[in-house]
Amino acid sequence: MDPMSERDVEKDYTVAEFAAKLRRLADALEAGKPFRIQIAGERFTVPKNARISVEHERSEDEEEVEFQLKWALADADEDPEDDDEV
Question: What is the pLDDT of residues 12-43, one digit of tens each?
C-alpha cells in the first residue's frame, strides 16, 4: 500500500481489549513518548506531540463519542518503545 494513500478502518473490541489499549496509549502520552500500533496489517507511530480531541455526535437514534489523535506525517518518525497489534 502506498503510505500516502487514503485509508479509513474501523475495528470493534471487547471492553477489556479497548481498556488495555487506552491504558497503554495513556501511559505513553503521560510519559511524553510516541505510541506504535498496528491496525489491519499496517503499523504506524502516533507521535508524542499528536493533537488529541474528543468528538460527540448525536442523531435521532444513536450517539457516538470518538477519541481522535491527529498529527503531521513528518512528526511520525519518532522511535516508539513497543508495538500493539490490532
Answer: 889 999 899 899 999 999 999 999 988 888 88
The yes-or-no verdict on residue 3 having pLDDT over 80 is: no
Which H helix or E strand runs over 53? strand 51-58
What is d(CA 72, CA 13) in angstroms, rounded to the nearest whole number? 27
Spatial separation of the C-alpha atoms in residues 63 and 80, rounded to whole Å: 34
Domain residue ranges of the chain, discontinuous segments joined by +: 15-77
Of 80, 84, 85, nearest to 33 (Cα)? 80
Q: Residue 86: its pLDDT value, please?
A: 45
Q: Which of 20, 32, 15, 5 is nearest to 84 (CA)?
A: 20
